[in-house]
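Hi U.,

Before I forget, here's the chain from the pilot set. I'm dumping it here mostly so it's searchable later in email.
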Amino acid sequence: MTQMLTEFRQPCFTLRALFFLLFASSPLVAAEPLAVFKAAEAHQGVAVDAAHLYAITNHAIGKYRKDSGERVAGWEGPKDGRIKHLNAGVVLDGRLYCAHSNFPSVPEASSVEIFDATTLQPMESHVFGQPPGSLTWIDRREGFWFACFAHYKSTSDPALSVVVKFDADWKELARWHFPSALIQRFAGNSSSGGGFGPDGSLYVTGHDAAELYVLNVPEQEKELVWSSTISIASAGQAFAWDQSNPGVLYSIQRKTKEVLVSRIERGWVTLFDGKSFDGWEQSGNWVVEDGAFYRKARGGQLTYTVATVPDDFEIGFEWKVSAGCNSGLYYRPAQYEYQVLDNIGSPYGENPRQAAASLFFCMAPSKDATKPVGEWNEGRIMCKGTVIQHWLNGQKVIDFDYTDARWAKEIELLRIRGADLSARGGKLWLQDHGQDVWFRNLKWRAIPEGETLARADFTPMPVPMAALEKENERVRKMLEAKKAK
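Structure:
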């Protein structure tokens, strides 16, 4: 009944070895399938644990060995029974949790159906009273449940689809809508699959497109933030991350009743081990304290010397400032700086083009999303081609293309400051501007050709007149200094 496309149990030939031989030099984010299983139940989604995969259809589940594809157990409910429309599943602590709804019936009814992962016998249910839609997927992260309640054009408005956070007892804590641009990408449908990946991002799929969408879950905002899109082999539907093999994704091809196994290799490189200055150069004024780089005294910048920043890249890091602090992270040759600042205590904060998360002296963020002094902030930079994006605490606060004529005045400021827009291959370095500052969890990855950045409308914060006058005077002096050379 089942068959694997490729046999991996040949002597001295492992799945990891096959991946290296076929895809180590590939620029793609999502590799072609490493394995393909035939599974009659592969219609709505798939779940996975260390040894087995679970193919899911409306009211049936098939359990298969991951190493051979052998079907070892199954469950099927009556077509006119209580179970109408099973969707995604996740295996936790020996139990298979399946999202279930009565779609396409209205009013919507949704529940979590729980099966014994060994025998596939039903164990219990959690029924949602007045659910905000049809439940399509669930996942658990850091003790909390996350669940997607979908709406479809055929019966409702897809924009009403939400992701809800629950505590361990299914008490609602928060909810988020999908961004409108992603709703359009769903093409009248909604999110069929979702789950947190090994990098902590929320990944979701739509109903039909062969795409995996990478989302941030902001703490305070009510809308998920779409950061990028990854091409995959399967066409939508529910998927599962293999927790026993980080980066391996199980998905389905419902037209052919197949389960596809792929490796989603986002290529993160850790830049700081939290213990030493390996790979970094400084003058002795930086120390490692509680897993973070701490600028303790005057003495200059801290520079990563192992490699230059990739041409198209994503950088993740956390930062914390002291009162009145001004610092920054430089990521391209010359003056490309992600500003790190105490927006309230530093005089630089009066000009949004110099505020935290700004592209310093060029582009102001859309909002002040900083946390209070002394708390850790999460920073992120994504650059591909001529697009520059800055993120702060899960919110995208800068998103612009520097070839867009709308931003000509802002880009001229960057040129005046000394930036070469065509330059690449710069060193990553952390600024010592005279105040105490901390950085940790620094990492980067190259953004491959097959991955696109999600774009959104962007309006920078306006510059107050008094701050603008000071900026103009500074520009005048910079231009005069250039003429004098």
